[in-house]
Specification:
Elements lengths: L12 H6 L2 H5 L4 E5 L5 E4 L1 H7 L3 H4 L4 H5 L6 H13 L3 E11 L2 E11 L5 E7 L5
Antiparallel strand pairs: 1-2, 1-5, 3-4, 4-5
């Protein structure tokens, strides 16, 4: 990755596949990779800092049930499931609100599903926590 990525919309499947673990961790927005079962495969530093959980405590766990149960709704998981059902590279953007014990977070979500089965969730803050 030669240039620094400033937003989630600049990512493509090709760029993600070519990205090193260090580059992924340095993305300036939240990035989460899920497997076909919804388990977290990768969780970058930006998302770890805002969600207050380490990648080590997150990887391998079920995203929709254990990590972010507020996303286990049609407005979020349903959209991801619909993208997967299309069976092709697909992406969707929408705004969402995460509620944490320490405050709420308005975010723009970009879901990306790739033909190789990778499911990506990119999280860009629209406001500060509070």
């Amino acid at each position: 990755m030669k240039e620094r990525l400033m937003d989630a919309d600049s990512l493509t499947g090709e760029r993600l596949r070519a990205m090193s673990a260090e580059e992924f961790d340095r993305l300036p927005f939240g990035a989460i990779k899920l497997d076909g079962e919804g388990r977290v495969v990768a969780y970058n530093a930006a998302e770890a800092a805002v969600a207050r959980r380490t990648a080590q405590a997150t990887v391998g766990r079920r995203f929709f049930e254990e990590i972010a149960p507020c996303t286990n709704v049609a407005a979020f998981r349903g959209r991801l499931d619909a993208l997967v059902a299309r069976g092709e590279d697909a992406t969707e953007r929408f705004d969402f609100r995460f509620n944490f014990p320490w405050g709420s977070r308005e975010v723009r979500i970009r879901l990306m599903v790739l033909h190789d089965g990778a499911r990506w969730v990119f999280v860009t803050a629209l406001n500060s926590l509070g």
